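Task: encode each sequence below as structure tokens.

Item 1
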Amino acid sequence: MRFLLALIALVTLTGAREPILVPEVSQHEVQLRQGFTGTGLLLFGAILSRDGTRAARDYDIVVILKGPTQSIVVREKAKVVGMWLNADSTEFRSAPSFYAIASSRPVADIVDDKTAAIYELGLKWLQLSPIGAIDPAEQVRFSRGLVDLNQRGGLYREEPRGVSVKEQVLYQARIFLPSSVPIGTYTAETLAVSNGRVVASASSKVEVRKLGFERVVADFAENQSFLYGILAVAISVLMGWIAGRLFALT
């Protein structure tokens, strides 16, 4: 009912000739509890004309779910005397903690490179701004390394045909959040594209938060990082001592 009321309100208030996007998310809050193994989000909505009827023509739909940005240090490993050690590194100012994009067709078939770069439509076009001066070739290498690392961890993903559009009106896409998904406020953005041009956009929010014991530990680690570090070391030492005593007794 809330979704239908939003449709009516937006159609009534707008006077634009371009289509109206009314997005919705199956869950506006994802709760991370003990034993959380991941969950799927359904991002859906409608494409309408100004009078509330179906759109006059077909539109390509692109859906992006992006987590809060963060600064991150990427280190490159090098093999020295048979051992892998940290070598060169660089720090990125604003890397998304989570990024997933789904589209009705491959992005390269929908828009040109310039438009894809402006709207960050795909992992190739993420704006990962490095801190300080860096050689362009090195920046590309570290950027690709960060993207590859997060792809293997399930935090970055692309679904070139992950959006289905029915009868030019309803669209939907499913995006999976892994168990390692970071907490924070996520933005779910929907874009309608026609003839290589973004003609409409709309967004909604999703909160990912920890509950129970996991939340207590996370809050303590964030707000009392020094004490958390001391406690972690103390517990490690204690567990080592206990294990040593048990082995000594056997």
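Item 2
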Amino acid sequence: MRLIALIVLAPAVALGATVVKTIDAPDTAISGLAYGSGSLWAADGNTSWIYELDPEGGTVLSSFRFTQGTPSGLAIWGNTLHILNAESGTYHGYVYKYSTSGSYQGYYDSTC
């Protein structure tokens, strides 16, 4: 399924940017993408799996299960993944920190 480029780049394409590459999504409900530590990271909102992808070809390099709920967003800072678990219909949720190897490192409140 080639959803990653369409979801992420659709607004940019509307502004005149061009798609330079598409890769197959590793799962069916990608709810977050981040690039860092040389890899593309994807979170799946249905299965709660976090995938590390080779940005060149989309090969899954590693994966781990997010056990604190349903991931609804993803960011990376250094070697730490920040995975958002927002409460549906609210401005409240938690951001959980994981190492890029999948080790849980704590959380913080993300009230907006």
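Check on item 2: The radius of gyration is 14 Å. Residues 1-7 have pLDDT under 50 and may be disordered.
End of task.
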